[in-house]
Amino acid sequence: MASSLYSKSFLGSATSDTCSSFGSAISSFRMVPSSPSQLSFPRRKFEVQAAGSSFGNYFRVTTYGESHGGGVGCVVDGCPPRLPLSEEDLQVDLDRRRPGQSRITTPRKETDTCKIISGIAEGLTTGSPIAVNVPNTDQRGNDYNEMSIAYRPSHADATYDFKYGVRSIQGGGRSSARETIGRVAAGAIAKKILKKYAGTEVFAFVSQVHKVVLPEDLIDYETLTLEQIESNIVRCPDPEYATKMIDAIDAVRVKGDSVGGVVTCIVRNAPRGLGSPVFDKLEAELAKAVLSLPATKGFEFGSGFSGTFMTGSEHNDEFYMTEQGKIRTKTNRSGGIQGGISNGEIINMRIGFKPTSTISKKQNTVTRGKQETELIARGRHDPCVVPRAVPMVEAMVALVLVDQLMAQYAQCQLFPSNPELQEPVQLPKLDGASV
Q1: How far apart are CA 79 and CA 74, in angstroms?
Q2: pLDDT at res. 22
Q3: What is this structure's pTM?
Q4: For residue 146, what pLDDT is reported?
Q5: What does the alpha-carbon distance between residue 417 and residue 421 come to, in Å, rounded to a whole number?
Q6: Is residue 228's pLDDT more than 90?
Q7: Is the peptide bond before 278 cis (omega within 30 degrees of 0)?
Q8: Cα–Cα distance for residue pair 80/59, rounded to 1 Å
Q9: All residues at 6 or more sequence positions from 86 whose CB lies less than 8 Å from its CB, including other chains
């Protein structure tokens, strides 16, 4: 979506005075006579891309809406046609993201019921844009009266004012995590494409809350299931550590405070070859995607920063041949990505989330009128964002993967593949029973 702006809008009108001054400068420099009337300015066209609300190149998603507006949602452009799709497919992940699902999440009550309003005919995608809308039904704008005057520390209130000079105050507007509803809906479509096309699965879970850290060796990435993740309200697949995490959130919740944590995400059966060096390497695209989520503060994949303590001989993933004649790696410190390209091993990454910035403890701040003051924030907010961030992370990872899958197919499958080095691409069989 682009609009055309011309140089006149940026440079001002070419009056006789400006032309005269410009002409005099040229004349003095060249030491030759020059008449202002002989000067002409080329009509230059500037293109300004719609900024900040769209993601992806081939599978492109645009989200819309604010926390306390009429609703939120997304438009998905580039979805392949003839994919069986229903609102129920999207609702599963939206229910995992919705507020009010337990005592350790925000008490705001929203059903987050989605409606697909375009792009579907007779239960199949048509290839045209898919629009998904979710209405807001439980707004409490009066909770934000104080925050309309004073900035919440470490929130986007101040920076939105610094950038735009105006903002939607109720609920944080566009900076609210309700914006992620559109991402999760689009991500559900992406996950269905990945599963149907290549058997690719994307799972995220909570691996840390405050100082409670789940040991990595307790979780088997090869056998991890959605049922394990969803077996408790904190979405940690280990029951013992889940209890410790819930206790840690409860301890700060009753005090009006908050804590942060880490979400781990894995991808099983990712096709080899995803990622486009050099600027669109797979890990770079994943990092951008997940760090665009609210409250994120860090990203690492594979060995991450711990790899800096190893030598090359310790860190390298040695190759070996399977009995089926397939190249694999004995270890996976690379995190399933080498040289910016997926290698067929499990992709794993970790995303750090800060403590929720809106808390009901007294804090020092300043007003929009630049006066120092104190603020006790009201409203309904998560004491820890990571339990509800799990489906958000899955969605962003899936959006990257399906976009890169379409890029790979477009570039590298146009001509016959090299069977000695490349795996054959399996085209999808469009039968609803297999999805």
Answers
A1: 13
A2: 39
A3: 0.85
A4: 66
A5: 8
A6: yes
A7: yes
A8: 9
A9: 116, 120, 123
Look up residue 425 and give its two tokens: 């691409």
Looking up tokens 């926390």 gives: 67
Q: For residues 332 and 324, what is the distance between their CA atoms, to the nearest angstrom? A: 20
- Rounded Cα gap, residues 130 and 137, in angstroms: 23
Let me know: does 282 contact 337? Beta carbons within 8 Å.
yes
Q: Please, is 409 exposed, middle or buried when counting C-beta atoms within 10 Å of its C-beta (0-12, 13-18, 19+)?
A: middle
Tell me the two tokens of residue 363. 């804090």
* Predicted confidence (pLDDT) per residue in 189-226, tens digit: 999 999 999 999 999 999 999 999 999 999 999 999 99
Residue pLDDT, tens place only, 106-131 = 877 788 899 999 999 999 999 999 99
281 neighbors 274 (Cβ within 8 angstroms): no
Is 80 exceeded by the pLDDT of residue 42?
no
Q: Contact 107/99 with Cβ under 8 angstroms?
A: yes
Q: CA 375, CA 354: separation in Å to the nearest integer?
A: 20
Tokens for 76?
Answer: 């998905």
Q: Give me 173's structure tokens.
A: 């507007």
Q: Which two tokens stand for residue 165?
A: 């000079």
